[in-house]
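Field: sequence (string)
Field: structure_tokens (string)

Example rows 1 and 2, in order.
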Amino acid sequence: MALDESKIRFSELKREGFIPTKRKGPTGIGYTLETALGLKENNLALPDLDKIEIKAHRDGSSNLITLFTFNRNVWQINPLDAIRKYGSYDRNNRLGMYYTMSLKPNSAGLFLTVTESEISVQHTSGEVIAIWHLATLAERFMQKIPALLFISARTEERGGREYFHFYRAQLMEGTTPELLSDLFKTGDILVDLRLHDKRTRARNHGTGFRTSEDKLPKLFTHIRDI
């Protein structure tokens, strides 16, 4: 579907006011929107609507979403060595590094450092664990979400059923390494390490870069209502 056609359909949907959800639970808003716009549900990592990703957002929701994962050529020490030096045991007695990083050292002494050109995970001893270049992260982000159609909805419950009023659609495009740097510093983008010891190697699920739904507009340089 072309953007112009989606604008017409959204205008019609906006005038309808509150409509009932077509699926219970947290995924109901996205499924209801896609159904109302005449789109097939897309659970693949492929953009919708002619290279524009669609995100339906409940007003007030701060649910965390994963923007992308990226690990290529970032580790400065062997990941298995890092786990055995700085990992911790989970409830299943599995040694791993499942940490959401921040600028302050965690219980393992690991913390996030942010500059204008890169972010890194370091230990309080001075050892650098991994480095991501912000230009590379910006490129990866734009590959995953070249543009975002961010559609906001008011919600209410009637007789135990959720209803949505989709009232605003914003087209968001573009980002920069400098913008990402600022968002890492403020904690609006989170860095999740997700790996554990598999005896002979590290099992890495991919470092996740996440944000909350309500912070998504901060990631883009150009935003306009449609």
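Row 2 begins here:
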Amino acid sequence: MNTSSSQPYRLPTNNISIKVLAEGAANVIYQITVDSTSREVAKTNKDYDELEYLNGKLLRLRKDVPTTAPTSESHQQWLGYILPLFEPEQLVTQELVYIGHLNVIPGLNTDLRRFDNPGGTSTSNHLAPPPKGKFYRSRAQSGTFLAKDDFGLLVTDMTPRKSAQETVVEFKPKWLSPSREIPPQAIRCRTCALHARRVALGEERKNTDLQSYLCPLRLVDDHPQLKFESYLASASHILHKPRESPAAQSLATWIHQNALLKRLRDLQTEYDLKASLQSEKASHELCVAMTLRDCSLYIRMDQHHHVTEARLGDLDYKSAHKHSSWKKKEQELIDEGWYCGRESKELKQPVGQCLLSRKV
């Protein structure tokens, strides 16, 4: 492969198949298969070894929703604002891919309409192939479709390799560091306060079990005697396995020994000091901070439950247009007393799950 080529990779015109694999609020992930016997493949990208180049990559296409920007623009933001913050092996890497010559978007949108299943539940909001090749859209995603865009992204394939008997788990670390702007008497972190409010108000979130959540502060607990217990509780929650299981023990050890989550926490803290949710406008620093607070962590484990790879993804630079909703949500948590456990009596929720309430 010629890595010096300045032109974006172009998907072959013929002899490829694109299969929907997963869907989120802003993007759809596709698996690409190339016919290795095709001569057309070799002609499309003279500087690339086609099969080798697509190996280990998935195709990500953006949806036509207000929160997404043109792919070429969002990719430049990722290159400039996110990539320099981490080591390459810590990120779901991405690169621009040209698809404009394929005119593939209308057909893929037709497929999404066929997959619409408004009354059903989704198996697609994680990077693992749906059972028996079936794909159903969640109620939350139904009715949204791909944007007309000449570019997509080739991203690191973090799906489990069946031949290796792997497991891949995905979760959102969320706010690993409490904002400096929360009340000093707070006994709930941002995630726990928001969770308590949603449970109390009966807000139904698609594909979310409101009674099951993870206090993110436990992932980066620094207490000398109690931190491993926090890591073990976190691992058990993430894997849906008992604490004494080999998988939970192994993941807890990885959380303890690996620096990735602590690096994410430190970056959140750094950008929180430079930004404010109370400001009239969203600064660049606030957009980076909110990006870091809404990413996903993909962890690959082998058949012996050892962590072999861990990467952060979904790090699309947040739009400043979301500032009003960020500010409104934060003000509600403060004004209604959710941070300090002072919510109204009829909405009262337990606070013991949050690490901020720990009395040691």
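free_text_note (row 2): The chain is about 30% helix and 15% strand.
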